[in-house]
Amino acid sequence: MKKYFLVMNIFGMGGTVRTVLNTANYLVDKGEDIEIISLFKRQRKEFFYIDPRIKITVLHDVTSWNGQRKNIKTKIGNFLLKKRPVLIHREEEARHFFSLMSDFKLYSFIKTIKDGVLISTRPSFNLFIAKYANKGVILIGQEHLNFSIYSKDMQQAMLKFYPKLDYLLTLTDDDTADYVKMFKNTKLVVKKLTNSIPDIGELKSPLDSKTIIAAGRLVEQKGFDLLIQSFKQVIRTHPDWKLKIFGVGKDKAYLNELLIKEELFNHVYLMGPTDNIQEELLKSSIYALSSRYEGFGMVIIEAMQCGVPVVSFDCPKGPSEIIDSYNDGILVENGNIDQLAEAINYLIENPLIRKEMGEKASENVKRFSTSNIGNKWIDLFEEIEKSSIHIRS
User: Fold this and answer.
1) How much is the mean pLDDT over the chain?
2) Fewer Cβ close by (within 10 Å): the C or N end of the chain?
3) What class of enzyme is it (predicted)?
4) C-beta separation of 246 from 221 below 8 A
């Protein structure tokens, strides 16, 4: 059975793109027939490595669209691009990228898939395939966040349409238990299947650099404003340490203003995106996660794999399932910038403990290896093959 992954933009950066490619690259190497459907192409070149054996289908290439052409196709396209989407749920966080054009292209392509396994990677896509995919296609939705995070409108849509999926894959034990309970009277199968990381061998940070890093989209969820305020406390006693924040997003201007207001521009640096977070991790001594909420925290396991201890808010729902506090990292009260600063200072002032935690982190995180998680995907596909579930009514 062919496997399709439906993503927003496989050429971009971010945790979802990384984990989809980790999985897809592994699966195609094991002989699976993999196609990635990328609704958009917003960069000319992919940010992360894509195995050339994976078929990439782009539905709307923003990089090559020329709205100045005078032909009828361009005129119709420009008209559709100006119209708001009607098929994507209105609570889609990136809805400003969508249009009637993306509705039309996504619907048209989904209707061409007559069989196989279709895996979607965000709530609005889960709802979309539940509504519009053809019978005979196995539908797998990935759920990266806790149900309580969503608006009432999105929750109602999920309760109504998720039972039309065949499988819902979650990232944490808590989320799995919540969704199992929620859909216990339906045929939807809820399974935990976490993100994964590829093997990097024996590469480890020496943890001797006076550098703390963080990475992610520059948006409210990631809490970089809280991290900056916390780091202001850190440099009072450790002014020779610096904080590097990697990522892009709509809050960049706000964060720059905050750095100026707090006079931290010589201590905190907005580094922009990087296509090699591993290289940056290997040059750091502490990773700080300040998210207000987090589905799983892909970058946590990437940091731990490099032997870098993570200091994190104990936000819902992911970090506590990865970090064993004061063993391979430190968890502090969610949103408590004082405790975050204290934990960072603790690791700065205790280099031996920092290195012990780093060693344990690199060992404990092996459970998230791509080979381990990839084999669970293969087990799932074998379960589907053996089951009569593919005869959908």
Assistant:
1) 93
2) C
3) transferase
4) no
- Domains contained in the chain, CATH given: 3-197+370-390 (3.40.50.2000), 211-367 (3.40.50.2000)
For residues 134 and 111, the answer to whether their CB atoms sit within 8 Å is: yes
| Omega before 3 within 30 of 0, i.e. cis | no
pLDDT, position 50 = 95
Beta-carbon contacts of residue 380 (< 8 Å; ≥ 6 apart): 167, 191, 193
The Cα–Cα gap between 124 and 76 comes to 25
Retrieve residue 205's tokens: 């940070």
Do the Cβ atoms of 264 and 228 come closer than 8 Å?
Answer: yes
Q: Give me the pLDDT at residue 56, please.
A: 97
If you average pLDDT over residues 368-388, what whole number do you get? 90
> Helix/strand/coil (H, E, C) string of the chain?
CCEEEEECCCCCCCHHHHHHHHHHHHHHHCCCCEEEEEEEECCCCCCCCCCCCCEEEEEEECCCCCCCCCCHHHHHHHHHHCCCCCCCCCCCCCHHHCCHHHHHHHHHHHCCCCCCEEEECCHHHHHHHHHHCCCCCEEEEECCCCHHHCCHHHHHHHHHHHHHCCEEEECCHHHHHHHHHHCCCCCCEEEECCCCECCCCCCCCCCCCCEEEEECCCCHHHCHHHHHHHHHHHHHHCCCCEEEEECCCCCHHHHHHHHHHCCCCCCEEEEECCCCHHHHHCCCCEEEECCCCECCCHHHHHHHHCCCCEEEECCCECHHHHCCECCCEEEECCCCHHHHHHHHHHHHHCHHHHHHHHHHHHHHHHHHEHHHHHHHHHHHHHHHHHCHHHCCC
With a cut of 80, say whether residue 391 has pLDDT above it.
no
Q: Are 296 and 144 in contact (CB under 8 A)?
A: yes
pTM, whole model, 2 decimals? Answer: 0.84
Dihedral class, residue 201 (left if φ above 0, else alpha if ψ from -120 to 50, else beta): left
Structure tokens at 184: 């216990």
Do the Cβ atoms of 279 and 302 come closer than 8 Å? no
**Region 100-117 average pLDDT:** 96
